[in-house]
Amino acid sequence: MIKLNNISKFYKPDVWAVNKVSLDIDPGEFVSIVGQSGTGKSTLAKLLFAEERPTEGTIEIGGWDITDIKQHEVPYLRRQIGFIFQDFKLLPKKNIYENISFAMQTSGMDDSQIKKVLPQILKIVGLQHKAERYPNQLSGGEQQRAAIARSLVHQPKLLIADEPTGNLDSINSREIIDLLLRINHLNTTVILVTHNRDIVNSLNKRVVTMEGGRIISDQKRGRYIL
Amino acid sequence: MFVNFRRVFKFAAQDFGRNIWLSIVNITILILALLTINFLIIFNLLTNNAIHVIKEKVDVSIYFKQTITQEQIDDLKQKISSSQYIKSVDYVSEEESLENFITKHAQDENLLNAIEELKKDNSSVFLASLKIKAKDISMYESILKELKESQYVDLFEIDENQFQDYTLMTQRLINISDKIRLFAYVLSGVFMLIAFMMVFNTIKIAIYTHRDEIAIMKLVGATENFIKAPFILNILFYNMIALILIIVIVYLGGIFLQPIMDKLFEGYTINLISYFNSNFIVIFFGQLLLSCVFSIISSLISIKRYLKF
Ligand SMILES: Nc1ncnc2c1ncn2[C@@H]1O[C@H](COP(=O)(O)OP(=O)(O)OP(=O)(O)O)[C@@H](O)[C@H]1O
Ligand SMILES: [Mg+2]
Q1: In the predicted model, is pLDDT for residue B112 greater than 70?
Q2: Ligand nearest to the CA of A43
Q3: Highest mean pLDDT: which of A95-104, B178-187, B216-225?
Q4: Cβ neighbours of residue B260 under 8 Å, at least 6 residues apart?
Q5: Cα B243 from Cα B294, distance rounded (Å)
Q6: B53-98: per-residue pLDDT in tens?
Q7: Which residue, A113, A130, A191, B160, has fewest beta-carbon neighbours within 10 Å?
Q8: Bridge-partner residues for A189, per DSSP?
């Protein structure tokens, strides 16, 4: 699914945010990436959806070498990947239904497809009864679920979650992680960047630990070791 | 493809409504820019016509002295007619001259009475004359020169006052209209520049107010053109509306100006409305093309600058 080969990312003036990272992720895996602040986790995620280009090394996703991906090809890469972030990134002036349909519209899906797929996705995240609500009328967990719903509209093979529980309490966090697990069960590869020790330990899945832009540990059934 | 176009159109229309004041200001500036262009078009039309009218009216007359014989007159007329510069030569008899004079001064009773007195003495008030029109106004100098070198030069007098007056008038008209035209060019340049900057800033503002939407569009895989297109389309809406309004303004202006024109040019008037009708495509689509090209260039520069991919 994902092949990182000796990837480095240099930021001016003097930061190697990611430093000679090699990583293979198989289809259907659930991988947690942990590490202290500023160790390059988000940078790694950005390299995966071509928000940043690597300074060195090569990146392959689903057999597609995106190392030097052209700007006009980026949208088509992103239609195959879902993303969620700590800050949900919902549009406050659109309700949940509109937020998701906006994403579907702007990425070129036609109306009949939207009408068909959107309710199904809302159901997966359990928001079918709150579609008319605006983001500020929802709890943090619900907002994140809406964001997850949006990330699922293209039925992505890969979901990248950069600290999705960073703004949530433990109960809401748990719900989000359970949702990610369910999505993983539906055969979507999930990459979860997190600081949350309890969650990582409870998952009992692969854990990649980073420090100073490098991978210092990669365990099949890992624990939070920092 | 069609779905995308419809959506771009919808997004652009929403934006137009949401920033209605910005839209109005933009359209106003565009209208001012187009207005100066249309002013130039009408102004050129008027000055060209005025100059044409003057040229039509110019002539040179030669008045025969009493001593000239009819043969000499015929011979002279013959010679003048054969000159390459001449468009027409008309013989005006004493009686005709008198009649012309009387009709011209029909209101002036004192003058007419004085002429009646003179007529009683049986001395002729007016002389027979030849009215000479050149093919082109620039040829009068040559014609005058030829006349002055004629063998009959002692038998007539040349009246070139009218020619001199008109030459002076034309020269003045050209001078003034050149100044006005220059001013209008500068003004329309200034308005174009303002319109250019307005569009640039409007796009900048639109990009700023839509930054969250844009970020999400990029994230979910909207193409670059899909993101850019509504901004440009919105600007094209402005141009379209400005053009429609300018057409209305120009035609209303034409209706208003027509009577003034008719009075000014008498028999030589031009019909403004039919002028605009018969040149509609060139004039208005030309303007639309010009303003759209300007706007799109400005939009693209602004987008390139403020919308980072
Ligand atoms: N655009 C940038 N320009 C310069 N330096 C950057 C940029 N983005 C990140 N960095 C630097 O790269 C390093 C890695 O940043 P990154 O965001 O990947 O860390 P992180 O592991 O996600 O941290 P956190 O857990 O706090 O989110 C940091 O030192 C950061 O300051
Ligand atoms: Mg981070």
Answers
A1: yes
A2: 1
A3: A95-104
A4: none
A5: 14
A6: 887 778 888 888 877 888 888 888 888 888 888 888 888 888 787 7
A7: A113
A8: A158
- Amino acid present at A135: P
pTM reported for the whole predicted model: 0.79
The residues placing their C-beta within 5 Å of ligand 2, an ion, are A 42
Phi-psi region of B3 (alpha: psi -120 to 50; beta: other; left: phi over 0): alpha
Q: Are B186 and A50 in contact (CB under 8 A)?
A: no
CA of B247, closest CA in chain A: separation in Å? 36
Alpha carbon separation from A7 to A16, B30, B271 (Å, rounded): 11, 52, 75
A40 Cα: distance to centroid of ligand 1 (angstroms): 6
Q: How far is the CA of B57 from the centre of ligand 2 (A)?
A: 86
ipTM of predicted complex: 0.87
List, edge to edge, every strand of the sheet that includes A189-193: A81-85, A158-162, A189-193, A30-35, A206-211, A214-219
How far is residue A130's CA from residue A127's CA, in Å, rounded to a whole number? 5
Report the interhelical angle of B286-306 vs B161-209 (nearest 10°). 40
Instruction: Give CATH 3.30.70.3040 domain extents, chain B.
Output: 59-160
Chain A residues closer than 8 Å to B12 by CB: none
Q: Which two tokens stand for residue B231?
A: 């901004």
The strand pairing partners of A16, in sequence order, are A10
Nearest to A20 by CA among A11, A35, A7, A9: A7
Return the CATH class of domain B59-160.
alpha beta
Which residue, B144, B157, B145, B146, is CA-closest to B67? B157
End-to-end CA distance of chain B: 22
And the tokens for A90?
A: 């919902």
Question: What are the mean pLDDT values of chain A's consecutive 10-residue runs (226 residues total)?
Answer: 94 92 94 93 94 94 92 92 93 93 88 92 93 94 95 92 92 92 94 91 92 92 79
